[in-house]
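User: Second chain of the day. Same drill as before.
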Amino acid sequence: MEWNYQSAEELAAALCAGDVTSVELTDQAIARIERDDKVINAICVRTFGRARAAAQRADQARDRGEDRPLLGIPVTVKECYNIAGLPTTWGMPMHRNYMPAEDALQVSRLEAAGAVVLGKTNVPLGLQDIQSFNEIYGTTNNPWDHSRTSGGSSGGSAAALAAGFGALSIGSDLASSLRTPAHFCGIYAHKPTVGLVPPRGMVPPPAPALPVDLDLAVAGPMARTARDLALLLDVMAGPDPLTHGIAYDLTLPPARHQRLADFRVLVLDAHPLIATGSAVRAGVNRVADALVDGGARVERHSHLLPDLTEAATLYTQMLFSSSAARFPVESYEQLRTRAAGLSPDDQSLDAARLRGMVLSHLDWIEATNRRELHRHGWRQLFAEFDAVVCPITPTPAFPHDHNPQLLERRIDIDGAEYPYFDQLVWAGLATLSGLPATAIPAGRSPAGLPVGVQLIGPMFEDRTPLRLAELLEQRIGGFQSPDGWPLRQEGCKIQLTS
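Assistant: Same format as last time:
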């Protein structure tokens, strides 16, 4: 039987019923990787020997009566997570031989839950691109169209899931690095509330794996169904035992509603700073129609929505401030001279990027204060709404573009060109204020490419957008593989149709 496209939930049920063993699942996943990954290039570090040994241990544990959330389930891990004895390079050639001595906390949690790690997935250089390619491991292609990107920086994980290489993966998100690859590859991903999933051990080499609190970035789950996202989030979430875990336990509130008809949803399909492509707009509207048909209260405008232009500008400054923090002094001084020459009237995102790269500590404090006002605005909005539906990026997956001058790249939106990084404005809507956001499939473009949308929810109420994602999956369908295996979830039962 073909198991590679079934959900983790169904694989767990089959393992419990004795219909398949973990060794069989692992061997089948490895065979598929060996067959198909030559052209996709999603798995950059293969751990097949370790995986087969872990699968044998999982089968033995099940024979002893053990039952863990992911026992025997094949998964993958984004390359940026430390795994003892395996390279962690972040795609940086100078660190191609770096091997950490201990696992990242999230890798330890995966293995404690019984998961079988098949390998590590490809990333862009330093995780700083919307595509996944680097000099060490090459380019990851989109399984739907090999001439196009799978996204970044969790593009390897998204491509692996779309290609049937494991049931789950873990990634990270600072500039939509979970959500954009999910959108481009037709899978599900969840950007958790900031601070919900501790990132210890997801650190650029050769830095020590300290239990830090990140300001914008998060670690999060990727899957082929909404329920699997929730399953993996439960494994990943919870305070770091070295810090907050000493005093705190995690109790996420339940979803606000169980029925689609009870949800109050704000739908956005336009941004003041960038156009929305017709394919993405159609995906947003498809979700909006499904919400209306399901009896949900849907609005297209609200005076409570924080200012989108200010949010994008503020996010851009904070994002590029962190990316430029370790620039050489000479480069920093050149940037500062260029920023000083900007006209005060220049409020473009290009200007925001340049100003962000030389942001002073005083400016950062001011930006943080303005961010808190946005967070308060979202609290007020979520007193009236349960979720916000909006694009992830303005277009489906775009053709590979390896121009080393990132600021010179352009994206095409229905025939009009825009600066490459302007497409991140939708990413910043949730990231700036630390809100949870679930990426879901919303159909395909006229060219047959996947199109996704994001469901943004209230801070620390991650189960609300996840539940909405599950309800929408039941109504409009979910993941469909590039080779024609659709997955449709009905209640707790997964049905496969060909």
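The chain has two domains: 8-302+385-496, 308-381.

User: Great, on to the next one.
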